Amino acid sequence: MTARHGKLEDMHKTLFLGGDVYSPADPFATAMLIDGDSVAWVGSDEAARAVGDSAEVVELDGALVTPAFVDALADGSAPDAASAGAARGVAAVHITVGADDVERFAPDEESDTAVYIAAQVSTAAEADEWKDAAPWLTGFAAEVGDDGDIAAQIAAATSAGLQARFTAADDGQLARVLAGYDAAAESAGRARLAAAGHRVDIAHAASDDMIAEMNSRRLSVGVRPGDGEARIGSMIKAGIPVAFGAAGTDGAPDPWGSVRAAVFADDPNERISARAAFTAHTRGGRRVAGGPGDGALVPGAQATFTIWAPTDLLVQVADERIAAWSTDPRSGTPGLPDLADPEFRPTCLSTVRRGRRVHMSEQGRSA
Predict the structure, then answer these.
(1) For site-directed labelling of 278, which of 18, 70, 71, 335 has its Cα 20 to 30 A away?
(2) Which SS3 state, helix, strand or coil, does residue 124 take?
(3) How many Å apart are CA 279 and CA 268, to the nearest integer?
């Protein structure tokens, strides 16, 4: 990856050429124009010169450009929680922190963090007090207690325009979250609760009834593929917004491993396409945290993306009976790296967050 004019560090207006750009705006895109912190254009190399004649030029040399990953279950206790995944293509994280650590995660140019505070709030006044003290809060995370505590948490968070987040270990705890939700709806209104997009993180195999109940209440879900028995395919098919955690078996960020675990789930009925898994790990993370509709490389979106070393790109056949991949360009679907080999991971050359480079590998520097 080479820059013909200027330096990659300065990305006020930068034109990337000669690669593969993963974008719903153009499934055959090979070029992308960045202007400040936004994507200005995506398309072909041939058309690129007309829209980016005054831009710095970066030759991708066949590299793949994708939206950056979102780690929806990052470890908030880690000192570098907001930046540890940049070398693996993670540019945004969701974390839960204690009251003493909230200030440490105030937004700045170097971070993109959805912050949940580990706190039980019982009233609208309490929730508003936290929101005034830390306007960047995404919501409140709490243990699954009794129905009254859950209802109070959900109602208070809703009144402040924030999320309530719970972790359910089994269907019993999940049922208590649902009961608390219904109790809160009696006072706060079901429409307001649905608009807040409250969240539950799970690892167990929720029943069909529980999945239907979550969907009817517009709950969103955080899950770590490969860790537990969560029925990711069933939840996504039901229409539940799902976001992926990125931690691998060693605890280090492994977003492609999470994508692979969802694609090649042990239960064939729960397998999803690489495109669906990748979307859950990018746009899904933005949606579940209630953020803007970014997470795709389209004009007007945040310039938050990752550049990966050249590799074979494939499109998974959307048929559960066929364990195969397609290279047919007529599908009109942008390709992703072939993850059939459980040991293979694409190499991250560079990660950019809102137009600012936050990681560049040695391979990227020397290319």
Answers:
(1) 18
(2) helix
(3) 20
Q: What residue type is 158 in one-letter code?
A: T
Alpha carbons 243 and 281: distance in angstroms, whole number? 6
The answer to whether 202 and 230 have CB atoms below 8 angstroms apart is yes
Provide DSSP, 165-209.
EEEESSHHHHHHHHHHHHHHHHHH-HHHHHHHT-EEEE-S---HH
What confidence tier does 65 reach under pLDDT thresholds 50, 70, 90? very high
Phi-psi bin for 314: left (phi > 0), alpha (psi -120 to 50), beta? beta
What's the one-letter identity of residue 46?
A: E
Average pLDDT over residues 9-34: 91
Fill in the amino acid letter for 113.
T
> Which residue ranges form the domains of the chain, and what is each CATH number?
2-67+296-366 (2.30.40.10), 69-288 (3.20.20.140)
* Residue 225 burial (C-beta neighbours within 10 Å; 0-12, 13-18, 19+): buried
